[in-house]
Structure formats: C-alpha cells, structure tokens
Amino acid sequence: MNKQISLLNPESAAWNMYGRIQLHALNNENIEETTEKVLNILIDRHESLRTKIEIIEGIPKQVVSTNLKVDLLKFDISNEKEDNEKTRDEIYKEISFKPINLTSFPAYNMALVKIDEDNYDLIFSLHHIFSDGWSMEILKKEFYDIYRSIILKSPLLLPNNRIHYKDYAAWQNKKIQNIDVNSDIVKYWEKKLAEGYPAMNFITDKQSDEINVGGGYVSYINEDTKKKLYEIAKENKTTLFSVMFTTYSLFLGYITGQNEIACGIPAAGRYHADTQNIVGFFINPLPIKVNIDYSKTVIALMKDINDEIRLALEYQKLPLEVILDSLKKKMPDLKVFFDMLNQKVDEKNEVLPNYNSHHISWVQDAKYDLYLLITEYKNGIELFWNYRKALFSKETIEKYAEIYNQFLSNFY
C-alpha cells in the first residue's frame, strides 16, 4: 500500500478521487432504479468498491465484503429553478470532499442528483488508495456499458477480470520483500538520484499562508488545433502525451527562467494485461528531469524528452518509493506535475460543449505548486490547472494558460 498517502485519517479528504456521470433517460426508464442496478453490478465486479482497511497487529490489511450493496444518497433539485446550479455545486462539493473512512464500509461516497425528470447526475468519490485516474475512467465506461445493456436488453460484453486488486497487491508485496539492490531498476534510479533534481524557482504572488488550499482553472484547445497536434505526433513517431509534456517543460522553463526543470509524471503501472480493467491504485509517480537546450528546435527537444521518459518507464515495474527505501533515499521534492487521461469514455460524453475558459469554485487541496491535467475529448482538449492559491493569483494562472498555448503553437 502506498506509504505516501495518509491512509487512515478519517478527517481528511485530500486523497479523494471524484467524478461525475451524466444520465439522460434513454427509453423512459426509471433512472434511479436502473442506476442502483448498475452500481450493484459494478460493486460486485470490482472488489476495490467493497474493500475496507483493518489494522491487524499494527499492519493495515484489506478486508473484502462478499455481499455489499450500494449505499446511494439521493437529492432532488428539480423544483429549484432559480438556485438549481448553486444547489448542484453545493451537493457536488459535499460528496466529492466528504472524508472517506477506510476502516468502515462503504469506503466511498455516492449520490444521485435529480436535475429534472429526464436528467440526473451521479456524483462519486473514492479514496486514492483504491483508485487512480485510469480506474475512474474504467468505472465511467463500464457504467455506461452496463446501463445501456439493461435498458436495451442487449448482451453485456465486459472483459473478465481474472484477478482483483488485492491479488495484485499481494504479488507486488512479495516482489518488494525480495528486492535486489543490485538489479538494473535499482541501479538506474540510484544514478538518477545521484545526479539530482533541480528545485523550481517560481516568481509567485503572495496570496495567503494557507499553503495547501487549491485553486482550479480550465482552459481548452479546439478541434482544429488538436488535429494539428496529432499530425505533429504522427510525423515524429511519438504521442500526443509527448507533444503536450514537451510544451509543459518549455512553459516551466520560461516562467522560472531555468534551463533545467524537474517534473513528476504518472506511470500507469498496468504493464500486465490482467491489470488493464481493474479498479485500484497502480500509479507510480516518476520524476523526470528535462534539460532545455534553446539552441535546438522544439522537435529535437521533444525527441530528447521522449528518450528520458522512455527510460524512466522501462524502470518502473516497482513503486519508486520502495526502491528509494531500499537505497535509504527520499523521494525528490517535486513542485510540479503533469498528467494526461487517455482512456476513452462513452462517445455521447466525449464532446466539449464549448471552449470557454473558466475558474472552478471548488477543488481539492493542492498537492503540488502547479499541476496540469490533460483530458482528450472528441472535439478538443481540456487543460485543468490545479495550483496553490497561496502562491498564484487567478490572473497569473490565466496568463500561464495563455503562455502554454503560445508554446504549443511552436509545433505547427
């Protein structure tokens, strides 16, 4: 289990993973009854949704229920015409940021919000110890698949999960106990740590002393630009991730005045086929050091960064924190992070309604000074900027989003 997460603190919501599923009646069905059926199928299918933690002889152990049913709160705001949006936001915040007590069932928060007769929102949050970004997309996709199957009375075609998350955790723990300090993976990270990771020197706006309070801002890239970026990636035999991360590196170098930056990226940790459709915590955060040589073209720089990422991913089959423990080293103190969700959800929900940038009134506590999450949609790309409000003003983040897009234009 991830030692970096304060697992059993029932007062903290810092590690909640939250999501929303929009529901529209397909065939005059009872949405509330159908949603409960779908959720019970998902709970039965994924052990992580019916797992809690017990401390046995001082050691946290996973305990799986064999007959847990959904615990679903219900809210009806269909009659609140004037304050509908405000009430909806308050409910979302309550469910998303309600602390999850891992020592009791259920170890999640879920609520169904009735917007009007034909439209509902399902709001849910899971603890990060049992989920990651990939897991949240699995749940969304499977929810829609199961929902359609029930309503249309069609066959349900979901991949069989040969193993569950606790099986993976047991296998990983066994590997951890037998870690070879002379292995290639340990030697690689020992060398990287010896080389060091630079601190990020931001010019900040002193806002407050509440260093963990997070702010959120969403900006967008339109469909035409997205197509151009894909063409660039294809021409250079790389991925959209590389294009976006290279841009982030250039952006960070510009706003800090540094030609060497350190940034965290997530390794999915799902290198075995049996883990592809399991809900659980597989993410292995990796530090990436980028040397920005301004004499090179942006394409040449992207190739250098690709090589760095490729090597890091080759040596990520054990959690980095475990390797660091074996070396008696600390995790580099990363101030910035980059993430990109690349799992597709139901096509009906892939379309961005518009490209209007906006601030978000409620977000989780900030874990990094600056965090950029990229989400791809059918008609564009969403960029979610999470930042420490103590360090940056809203106006600065708006400016940062513009600068990022300017650097992105260097590719086309």
Q: Could you walk me through the main structural features you see in this protein, from its secondary elements to its overall organization?
A:
By secondary structure, the protein is of the alpha+beta class. The protein is built from ten helices and 13 strands. It has helices spanning 31-45, 84-96, 133-152, 165-177, 184-195, 223-235, 240-256, 298-314, 320-327, 394-408, and strands at 16-24, 51-56, 59-64, 73-76, 108-116, 119-127, 214-222, 260-267, 284-291, 336-341, 358-360, 370-377, 380-388. Strands 10-12-13-7-11 form a five-stranded mixed β-sheet, sandwiched between helices. The protein has a four-stranded mixed β-sheet with strand order 1-6-5-4, sandwiched between helices. A two-stranded antiparallel sheet has the order 2-3. Strand 12 (370-377) and strand 13 (380-388) form a beta hairpin. The protein is globular.
List keywords for this structure.
single chain; alpha+beta; 412 residues; globular; four-stranded mixed β-sheet; 10 helices; five-stranded mixed β-sheet; disordered N terminus
Entry summary:
The protein is α+β, with helices and mostly antiparallel strands and 412 residues long. It has ten helices and 13 strands.
Number of helices, where a helix is a run of at least 4 consecutive DSSP H or I residues: 10
Nearest-angstrom radius of gyration? 22 Å
Multimeric organization: single chain
Order of helices and strands: EHEEEHEEHHHEHHEEHHEEEEH
For the largest beta-sheet, the strand count, sense and barrel status come to: 5 strands, mixed
Strand order, largest beta sheet: 10-12-13-7-11
User: Quick one: overall form?
Assistant: globular
Structural class: alpha+beta
Helix content: 25-40%
Low-confidence stretches: 1-6
Strand content: 15-25%
Number of strands: 13
Q: How far apart lie the N and C ends?
A: 43 Å
Overall pLDDT score: 89
